[in-house]
Amino acid sequence: MGEFELIRTLFRPLAEATWQDGVVLGPGDDCAIQRVPPGHELVFSIDTLVAGVHFPAGYDPVRLGWRSLAAAVSDLAAMGADPVCYTLALTLPDADPGWAKSLVGGLEEASRAFGIALAGGDITRGPLTLTIQVHGTVPEGQAIRRSGARSGELVAVTGPLGGAAAALSWLEAASPPASAEGFLARYHRPQPRCELGRQLRGLATAAIDISDGLLADLGHILEASGVGAELEPGRVPRNFDGTQATLDQALNGGDDYELCVILPHSALEQLPGSVADSLWVVGKVCAGSGLRLMHADGVIEEVSVPMGYDHFRGQ
Amino acid sequence: MGEFELIRTLFRPLAEATWQDGVVLGPGDDCAIQRVPPGHELVFSIDTLVAGVHFPAGYDPVRLGWRSLAAAVSDLAAMGADPVCYTLALTLPDADPGWAKSLVGGLEEASRAFGIALAGGDITRGPLTLTIQVHGTVPEGQAIRRSGARSGELVAVTGPLGGAAAALSWLEAASPPASAEGFLARYHRPQPRCELGRQLRGLATAAIDISDGLLADLGHILEASGVGAELEPGRVPRNFDGTQATLDQALNGGDDYELCVILPHSALEQLPGSVADSLWVVGKVCAGSGLRLMHADGVIEEVSVPMGYDHFRGQ
């Protein structure tokens, strides 16, 4: 057995340990097979993480496993989809069984936490890169898209923002201060909002996961929906275990994997208390276009929304 | 618009130009959406091609587009699945619009030829790598797996083998000899056997696409099915436009993307003439294990089938 064959065998138990009902055939054939329940649609997204670009080159493989899968599953949460399974295309510069076992450990923990099964994959030699495609299902026609926001509706977020950005400067520190711990937890172990996404089906008119920063990602919703918005920066939550991210980190920092959600006032009242308590209303949707920041001191700041809404982005 | 944003916009027309009915929502949201027809299952496979490992570093991008998609679709053909859509995760060292346009051109040509739509993707900066996940559908329970081969059945292949391996030494030649043209065509423009795969549903008991070489890939079927086989090397087709690949290339060369199919005698008789004419019977399945080559001079050669059938391989 070649050294890469050995690495491949490490992933077999992961597929077996995380099996989900929708998976008819897992790894080991030319293709995997999934059954989509009657009256449901398949929802899927592919994402690549490159060492040195999307995570530090020497990043801990257990954390890498969790974080890669969490970031991918977050796209399912934004559509209101229930996670089912995923494929992993892993490119490795060399066959290091210890490193691979740790990665499998992190993936297994995340797979169990999110209820998603490894259904197939490909392992090849090359620069360190992980590509994950996640599969979920939604009742037909109920996926929450980016394009449904309407004037008068509320803009909400599902948790504090800016933590992952605030963590960046501490990532490689041997002994980060206690005040950085909340930030670091957010970077290393993001929590995709699947349960919240599912409860927002039929109530939210648009949603996106915040991977590029609140302003940029809200901008994608505005472009796709053909509307504008007013945001109150003072209402954006940014407290992590008692330490605040800066306003810039909260508005522009990526990788938090909370959701930005648009919903009418009436929907907010229909939500169970536990769900409504997880939503911070931070602004409202307006007719027209553009994004305005309504600062507490009365200053109004125009934000340039990324031009040329890009249909090959954000999957 | 950043330079990578510009590259992303090149893929939008490709998604629109190749649209297929099963795609409910294409690129541009957090996820894409696919509808799987009632009574059908989703069949999917992910594959990565790394520059310098799976194709030459300076390989023509039009050819790269065709070849990458053809190799991926070949996995659907091996399951007897009908192609529907695919996602593309593309990692690029720099944003070269001319190169990207050529890649899109090759992908579009292949997408139309195979009837498969671009449904989503991700473009990131990093070492040149293409990861493609293809989606197809089959009537429930009718996918052709590797594990159904039974003693007494026939081993067949769907076309001449060894051409892509024979092409390798000519790939970077400025003016290859006319005798190499058949080989080069096979390397640059492999033709996945989707129509044949579909017609073999319910008739073939096992199939695999020949990406690692006939002996290795037949070995995967034998391992998965728990049987052995006798192969007659003299019957393996290896003629490309009048030039023969060597026997070693035909038995061990990869990247031809023909199918190796197992089927009972009776199934061969039920096939339409055009399909039966596309099958070369090269051996038979036996009880027990192992793969024996029955040479024309009476010599019997035992081939070591790769041990430890690997469930994380071949997707």
From TrEMBL, chains A, B:
InterPro entries from the UniProt entry: PurM-like_C_dom, PurM-like_C_sf, PurM-like_N, PurM-like_N_sf, ThiL-like
Binding site for Mg(2+) 4: 30, 45, 75
Binding site for substrate: 54, 255, 309
Catalytic activity: thiamine phosphate + ATP = thiamine diphosphate + ADP
Keyword Transferase: yes
Keyword Repressor among UniProt keywords: no
Binding site for Mg(2+) 2: 47, 75
Associated pathway: Cofactor biosynthesis; thiamine diphosphate biosynthesis; thiamine diphosphate from thiamine phosphate: step 1/1
Residue numbers binding Mg(2+) 3: 30, 75, 209
Pfam families: AIRS, AIRS_C
PurM-like N-terminal domain location: 28-138
EC number annotated for this UniProt entry: 2.7.4.16
Chain positions recorded as Mg(2+) 1 binding sites: 47, 122
Binding-site positions, Mg(2+) 5: 212
Superkingdom classification of source: Bacteria
Positions annotated to bind ATP: 121-122, 146, 211
Keywords: ATP-binding, Kinase, Magnesium, Metal-binding, Nucleotide-binding, Thiamine biosynthesis, Transferase
Gene Ontology molecular function terms on file: kinase activity
PurM-like C-terminal domain ranges (all copies): 151-294
PANTHER family: THIAMINE-MONOPHOSPHATE KINASE
Recorded family membership: Belongs to the thiamine-monophosphate kinase family.
Other remarks in the entry: Reaction mechanism of ThiL seems to utilize a direct, inline transfer of the gamma-phosphate of ATP to TMP rather than a phosphorylated enzyme intermediate.
Function: Catalyzes the ATP-dependent phosphorylation of thiamine-monophosphate (TMP) to form thiamine-pyrophosphate (TPP), the active form of vitamin B1.
Protein name: Thiamine-monophosphate kinase
Species name: Marinobacter zhanjiangensis
